[in-house]
């Protein structure tokens, strides 16, 4: 039997009473944060207390900006006392998705990933949806709640992020939710959140990347040595692709016991995933799409193949492997010149 959104909303509200202390758990990303904000609004004045709690550590600058600019209060799961709460909600995730969820008994689950077998008194899992924020927007609309500009901005950003600006799977429901939110969201705020992808400390890596890059045949390559997060390699690889003549960008760094190699290209007749798999696959994990790819090689393996982990040595090794691909496909086989 398919329930209407109104019936589902009623069923959802029946799960709560005025004396409830509600814990909302999320694995914080824009979609999950926005969904939690929406549920908080739906249950406003309906329960005694509602606390939003994240199981992950939030490090992404855009997520941090979202929390700061939209006044979200999140308490890390290690800092809450579970038995202070008599109802637990899980949003944008399911119990089997993370170890941290194991100790909780969930009353309500709302998500858009493939359903697991966990049975909760209220469960609304719609894998055909691009974002949980779209489901939550339907609940808001059905409850006739006009979202504040901050809530609408959060949901708007959540849908945009999870559908990768509608490039990834999205349904009509996502588009309808998005259209509704567009009327209520603060687009300047949304744009600001979207724009933020750097931490102050990252700027030094950009300086290093710009001064140490090698450029050959429209390919930019740089090895950064130790980086605090692989995200830095991704940011710089994307940054180099913004130079109009660049067709390939290859940025690598050492992090968490691995050599991380990020490949980007302009998506024209090229296969970054294929290059990554062919040239680095036998050393670790490697693969990706036509225009984006990534390889991760354990440092022990790098040490077995290289004399040392000096920046120049690693850079040289990566360049040789990358250049081999281009030499094969671009130079005629009869060319015997050194
Ligand atoms: Mn999601």
UniProtKB/TrEMBL annotation:
Tell me the GO molecular function terms: hydrolase activity
Position of the signal peptide: none
What domain of life does the UniProt record list for this protein's source?
Bacteria
All copies of domain DDH, residue ranges: 23-159
- Pfam families tied to this protein: DHH
Q: Hydrolase among the record's keywords? A: yes
**Which controlled-vocabulary keywords does the entry list?**
Hydrolase
The name this protein carries in UniProt is NanoRNase/pAp phosphatase (C-di-AMP/oligoRNAs hydrolase)
Lineage here is:
Bacteria, Pseudomonadati, Thermodesulfobacteriota, Desulfobacteria, Desulfobacterales
């Amino acid at each position: 039997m398919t329930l209407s959104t109104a019936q589902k909303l009623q069923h959802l509200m029946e799960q709560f009473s005025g004396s409830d202390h509600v814990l909302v758990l999320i694995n914080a990303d824009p979609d999950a944060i926005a969904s939690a904000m929406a549920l908080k609004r739906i249950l406003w004045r309906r329960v005694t207390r509602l606390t939003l709690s994240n199981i992950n550590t939030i490090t992404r600058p855009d997520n941090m900006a979202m929390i700061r600019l939209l006044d979200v209060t999140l308490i890390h799961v290690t800092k809450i006392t579970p038995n202070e709460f008599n109802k637990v909600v899980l949003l944008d995730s399911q119990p089997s998705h993370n170890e941290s969820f194991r100790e909780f008994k969930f009353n309500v689950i709302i998500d858009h990933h493939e359903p697991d077998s966990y049975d909760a008194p209220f469960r609304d899992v719609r894998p055909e949806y691009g974002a949980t924020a779209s489901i939550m927007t339907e609940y808001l609309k059905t409850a006739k709640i006009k979202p504040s500009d901050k809530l609408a901005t959060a949901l708007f950003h959540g849908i945009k992020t999870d559908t990768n600006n509608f490039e990834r799977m999205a349904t009509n429901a996502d588009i309808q939710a998005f259209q509704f939110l567009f009327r209520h969201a603060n687009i300047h705020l949304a744009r600001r959140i979207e724009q933020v992808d750097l931490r102050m400390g990252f700027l030094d890596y950009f300086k290093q990347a710009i001064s140490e890059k090698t450029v050959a045949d429209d390919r930019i390559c740089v090895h950064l040595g130790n980086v605090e997060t692989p995200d830095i390699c991704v940011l710089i690889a994307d940054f180099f692709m913004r130079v109009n003549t660049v067709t390939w960008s290859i940025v690598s760094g050492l992090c968490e016991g691995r050599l991380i190699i990020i490949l980007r290209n302009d998506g024209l007749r090229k296969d970054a995933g294929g290059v990554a798999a062919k040239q680095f696959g036998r050393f670790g994990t490697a693969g990706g799409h036509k225009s984006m790819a990534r390889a991760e090689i354990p440092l022990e393996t790098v040490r077995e193949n290289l004399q040392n982990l000096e920046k120049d040595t690693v850079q040289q090794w990566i360049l040789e492997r990358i250049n081999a691909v281009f030499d094969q496909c671009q130079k005629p086989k009869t060319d015997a010149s050194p």
